[in-house]
Prior knowledge:
The complex is a heterodimer of chains A (110) and B (115).
Chain A: E1 3-5, E2 10-14, E3 19-21, E4 24-26, E5 32-38, E6 44-50, E7 56-58, E8 64-68, E9 73-78, E10 87-94, E11 98-100, E12 104-109
Chain B: E1 5-7, E2 10-13, E3 19-24, E4 31-37, E5 43-50, E6 53-57, E7 65-68, E8 75-79, E9 88-95, E10 105-106, E11 110-114
Parallel strand pairs in B: 2-11
Antiparallel strand pairs in B: 1-3, 3-8, 4-5, 4-9, 5-6, 7-8, 9-10, 9-11
Amino acid sequence: AQSVTQLGSHVSVSEGALVLLRCNYSSSVPPYLFWYVQYPNQGLQLLLKYTTGATLVKGINGFEAEFKKSETSFHLTKPSAHMSDAAEYFCAVAGNQFYFGTGTSLTVIP
Amino acid sequence: EPEVTQTPSHQVTQMGQEVILRCVPISNHLYFYWYRQILGQKVEFLVSFYNNEISEKSEIFDDQFSVERPDGSNFTLKIRSTKLEDSAMYFCASSSKRGLYNEQFFGPGTRLTVL
């Protein structure tokens, strides 16, 4: 069975500071991992995904995530937060279905 | 840019009533999905649909739920007799390729409130 745990339902960072959103997964098969972002009143938008190959994946808007099998983690990072990054972020693992985490709400403080 | 659309954005209904949530997937996509998110909880998979039949469904998707692609553009989720616990945000998604490792494009959601 697959599952995802996102640590921290709310994260606040200052504009220009590092963004780190944590995601740990559980999977009985090699995982396919995703990060989605949801802006207010909009649908989920794919930020990046890991399927196979390079464990550091780069996504849109300067985000990247590193797949660490030994730690069963897929944390999302961005070196410098921008006000426009304020949104809800969801980590997901795909097995026979998509399994989402509970989401992390990112606030960027000017 | 093509996008998935959903109507209505907010639906309020009385317990026991039937509701139909509508989605228009991206036009050349062949795989369709419904998810729901109860307030404060995880986004949960409900069902996937391909070639006019259900490919996969979760334990949440019981006999009260049904999906249909009535024409070439719409994809609907019907709840026959709504319960209070059906109150949630319902997301439709579509993809062009088979396989969950492929990107799914999500609509903005329909917020269902059951009174």
